[in-house]
Design brief:
Helix content is 56%, strand content 6%. By secondary structure, the chain is mostly helical.
């Protein structure tokens, strides 16, 4: 399955508005986790699989393919994976959500 793209129909939007395409991409299981795990630099396939609680190799391969297609992740010559500039931008955009989730957790305690 190809990665969601702005301007094409995606889950929740027949018009493929950019925000809806992004929500579809990040709503796919493991995609946010992969972006999170790559935030500090390149990681090899097996190490990434372990960091993602041992998800199956076939699912990891599929998710990496989607994220590479979406240009958030790139595969480096040494076969490791890293965030692209666009991927780092996605991580920066998620930081306010991380802060909010910490406030939420504190409020619920």
């Amino acid at each position: 399955m190809a990665a969601p793209r702005p301007g094409q129909p995606v889950r929740g939007s027949s018009t493929g508005r950019p925000l809806m395409a992004a929500l579809d991409l990040f709503g796919r299981r493991w995609n946010l986790r992969i972006v999170w795990e790559l935030r500090h630099g390149p990681v090899g396939f097996r190490a990434l699989q372990q960091q993602c609680d041992g998800m199956s190799s076939s699912v990891l391969r599929q998710r990496l393919t989607e994220l590479v297609d979406a240009r958030l992740v790139e595969q480096l010559p040494d076969a490791s994976y890293a965030l692209t500039e666009l991927g780092h931008g996605a991580h920066r955009a998620l930081r306010p959500l991380v802060r909010w989730s910490q406030d939420w957790a504190t409020t619920l305690d």
